[in-house]
Amino acid sequence: MGKKVQSYTTEFRAEAVKLILAQGLTLQEASQRISVPKGTLANWVANARGGKPVGAPGARTVAELEGENKQLRKELAQMRMERDIVKKAAAYFARESLQGTHS
Length: 103
Description:
This protein is mainly α. The protein contains four helices and no strands. The mean pLDDT is 84.
């Protein structure tokens, strides 16, 4: 029969990594304290040391999120500018069409 895969929350993983990096516990001590396999804990710590986010697959680093935020703000500014141009053009053509009907 197959093994049941245990899943852990992002918060749990982050706290587990803190036990080792911030509190100085060994992998063995932390593994016993929180009942997580030593190899799993080692992977989380290696990812954290390598700059990868601790947590679910697909999680992104702060730098990646800041970069995306910067890009989205730039796109939003561009869209607002284009919207304002279209509004002005529509108002201009609306005035032009009204002037033609008053003859």
